[in-house]
User: Fold these one by one.
Assistant:
Number 1:
Amino acid sequence: MAASSTRRLIWLVVAATIGLALVVLPAPAALAQPSNDDFANATVIESLPFSTTEDTSQATFDPSDPSGCSSNGSVWFAFTPPSDMPIQADTFGSNYDTVLSAWTGTQGALDLVACNDDFSGLQSKIRFHATGGTTYYFMLARCCGNGGNGGGSLQFSVDQIPAPGNDDFADATTIASLPFSDAVDLFAATTQPGEPSPSCVGLPLQNTVWYAFTPATTQSLTARLDEGGLGLAVYTGSSLTDLTEVGCSQFPAPQPVVFRAQAGTTYHFQFGWWCCEGADPVVFSLEVTPNPVADFSFSPGDPSVFDTVQFQDSSSDPAGAGIASQTWDLGDGTTATGCCPTHQYAQDGDYTVELTVTTPDGRTASTSRVVHVETHDVAIVKMAVPNTAHVGQTIAISVYVRNTRYPDRVRVDLFKSVPGGFEQVGFLTQTVPVRRGDRTTRFAFTNTITEADRTMGKISFKATATILDHRDARPGDNDLTSPPVKIT
């Protein structure tokens, strides 16, 4: 046989052998449904902590599955706690979008305890307080899918949530230095028998924890929480039976407790939910209370000896305790108390006014301002006009201004009477020096009599003086109207 024919024969035999092998290989086995695919076959959790991994890609939907949460491709677990305990269950590590729920009751008549989807992305987490002897059923399902089937690689864990280390008074967290801040999860915290009820709450707090601090120096301290719905109390004493309340806070919004702490005295801090559980964790902080910020204003800002000066406290307390009292030194030997005293100074000068404020817990702050009292006062004391005038005549009108305080630039506006009132006919500005006694400064005006003036029969002139650079202390004497001028 030729060599080429021999090679062809060998290849035909090999190909036939391979084809036969392909035909006789068995088909891969179909993936089975999870053993806990149905409620009735729930995997029993014997003890905690519990963790398992299983393939739920062939999990199915059962018509009896509850509809309170998604039931696509669900599997079931069951746990009966031997005693009351807080429980956390999660699907962290699963590779598909899980929905985790817990139920009590019987198949077809289940009551929802907790449900969660999309915690930290694809995984879910639930927490609840379990009652001893009650069976809890966990349904783990796919959030979305086609035909109600399938899941993926499921990682499921259940564990008891431990109580915080400072759950009891005797185990209070010792605060070594300030400022101090700590985040604590109150979900598994308990309330000890005999714990005091804060006066501002009126009923025992739930899920309480304790802290303790002994200051080395006497100082004001601020204790605060970052969540509302909590009660916070501060006590002195050495045991639950001999505690004395120092301060208390209970509001829907977070409110601090500010108190005066004595050196060497141990202060105990208790807080917990007063109505219902809120968000966790709760952040507790303790710090030295900053001093208040003293500030005040006064009006008018340029007082004279004729003014009653109104002072107004505008101090603030960054700690939120507020201002309890105000003490004033008004700078001229006079003192006052309260938020808003008034005072009249007897003579011009600079007066340093000092305000000292005190908070309810004894913190103080002071500030001072100079009140500059300067009295500017001019007055129109006389106007000189002729008794008679005729049409076309230019007459002289003299306005005399008195000033006994400070040299001032003064503007005098002159008005002439017209039917229904006065109209301006001129103005002059000049410096009015200080002149003692009855001496005055003259402002000299002229005015030409018109036919309209003759029609009226007589006219009057009115002058108004205005200090240009300062406020006039007594503007009421800055207007004067002349005797009438008869027009012939």
Number 2:
Amino acid sequence: MPSPLTVLIDPWRMHPLAWLHRVEARAIIAELRAAGQPVDVAAFVPGALPQAARILLRLSDPVMVDAVRLLTAYGIAYLGPGAAALVCCYDKWIACRTLRAAGVDCPETRFAADAAALARPLVLKPRRGSDSIGLRVMRSGAVPAPLRNQHTIAQTQLFGAELTVAVIGGIAGMPLRIDLPEGVPYTFLRKYLWRPRCAPLADHTLATRVQQAALGAARALGVDWAARIDLIHERASGRVFILECDAAPLVGPASAFAASLTAGGMTRAEQLARLLCEA
């Protein structure tokens, strides 16, 4: 009999990320119980951390950051992203600087306050955030005054095929192409309400390049558990650029993370074993 597992989830609150991650957690819990794994569930409460032998974190990014910092400070072991990797990836400014220092291609990035010299159109997004909440495209003109700060970053918009790929344990899944018209941003609503079709990349040479780029980015960012990396294959130059690395991705059975690994030949049972560090 496997040792009991406690799945730590978001406390209920009126926020779309809490709802998404609680739904995903329920799906993973159902999978694990169906496989004979004893599972308990606990909501993350800073003053009442679980005293379980094994803890799996299934939390939204902002709550995950708090939980990882607290668990690490108290020396409580858990299954999930390490604090350094999570904080680096959650801060898009730091992540882009880290990638560029490692020689990994990513869009030119500046604080929105310093974006006057960047070519338009621009992609504006919160420096710290997840799931493309707050992302917007500015096609011309000056950055609006309320966004000219160091909490908002600006990136040159790239045009080409949007891709996503899962990474776990030094293995990259099959890149998935997101069926969006060029220049249409992959916003929160498109990710979760008006979901475009995603299909395995048919060009195997390009797929290998994308996998290598994703693994290089994961190494540079210190990814030590699971990640989903978004990229773009720029039509004009043929280069592959890293757009974002989510070090606390949705990993449920219906996620792009699971689909990428499945398309790459990794069974769902092996995915779960790797997520639980049993592989």
Number 3:
Amino acid sequence: MNTSSDNKIQQPSIIQALLSGFNTVANKPYLMILPILLDLFLWFGPAWRVDQLFNPILQSLTGLPGLENPEYSQLLEELQSAWQTVLTNFDLAVTLRTLPIGVPSLIASKPAFSNPLGVSPVFSLDSNSQVLGLLFVFLLIGYILGSLYFKNISNQIIHPVNNHGFKNFLKTFSQIVMMPIIIILIFLIVGIPIVFIFSVITMLFPGLSNFIFIVLGMLFIWNLIPLIFTPHGIFLYKLSLFPAMMTSIHVVRVSMGKTAWFLLSSVILIQGLNYLWQTPPADNWFLMVGIFGHAFVVSAVIAASFHYFIDATKFSQTLLSQQMKSA
């Protein structure tokens, strides 16, 4: 008889995953330490400016042939002004907050060089070798800290066996470093022809430029979503990068509706509360409350994503098993 058995497949629960994530961090508050330490370093620690190196490059754009046309001069001035503002407030140390795996930070999105104690020590970088060398160091440290952060959270979801050695950490770390490189290569291979086609369309129909930019952004996000759980496969199940990517794609494809709602809920929760955490200015001690609040919420949501991934993986495996039996 085909009754309950057809075994009603239990779909992953968004609410249950979020509750489990918050409980995980509430029971193990030390999981918040790395986000808090990173924010304190970016807030009170030394800063590294790059505007002295890049501002002359911005100014030299006015001398490029073809840009002396009045139609372009105003647009160029606005572009130069916007980039100059970005560079003036940019601290190279924020690259410690690496993507897609890294320690989350609230201060990374705040104006730099200011704190309740006054002005942070500032070092100006004036050569390419200094910028590239320090950038490499920050990215390396960022990925190491990010790997430790995700490893600590995943260890609370599935207790590992013989997973504390340096060799195991090095293996996981190598997969994490490869991940952004592979993703960039994939998008370059797929994206360059698409960008070229859209550029031609934009030249032929300038009025569509904003619409095309939105479409490109949506395509980028849409193609990135299936890979969202790649780190979870690496940390939870000790998969290599490509098997983890394939697992993530399969899990998201099977549970796309639920996964989309889970991701949307997570983004709304984090970004919505970030508006509250970022309310105090950078020179106000009340920002410390925001740092702790942000560390708790974002760590809880990341822990929830591990819980959700486990449930979604079980759901996809059960569904596949039933489909094979009925075939």
